[in-house]
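User: Fold this; tokens only.

Assistant: Input:
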Amino acid sequence: MPDFMIETNHLTKQYKKAYAIRDLNMSVRKNAIYGLLGPNGAGKSTLLKMLTGIARPTSGEILMNGHPWMRKDLNEIGALIEAPPLYENLTAYENLRVRATLLGIPTVKCHEVLEKMDLTEAKNKRTSDYSLGMKQRLGIALALLNSPKLLILDEPTNGLDPFGIEALRAMIRSFPLSGITVIISSHILSEIQQVADDIGILHNGSLLYQSKVDSRDNLEQIFKDVIRKESERS
């Protein structure tokens, strides 16, 4: 069995003459949390969109669980990228039920993910009346609906208060224990330091650094050194 849930080989995404992702080689261990770091515009969202089939690579290869990525792999991927995909005229439960119906998932799963994300009491409230943090939690609930083996979260703490961030952090740490590999992107170094097993630093579309996380590491200093060194080279 392969040790990696996701591997990319020379992955590239080009828009006309501009590169969003350039010759990227990344390895995401199974049942681990991979923190993807980078300043705004580094290419994080583009990379995550390719991993979820939203964007097609210009060249290179994505392997999932040891085989070339295929559309059917989406059955084992849950994702929250950028804004949660919500029908704001519907309640939280109705949003989940629509997705469950499309995927052929029993509606009992809707109640399970609502409870997991602490949204049961607000399940019959229209999502147009939700706070930004509640919408984020519902977006994660939607991503968990198909019991994914790979969960991709793009800036998941956006809009959450400190208590919400703390609860989400604990939940993310629990996912690998239930067989879920997590890729989480953020520009907040302290959040990644507290949840990630491995990190990758992305800048100008290139993966400049990839390593396991050591609690003794000064992640902020590592990040600054990597970005500064690359800036000096260019």
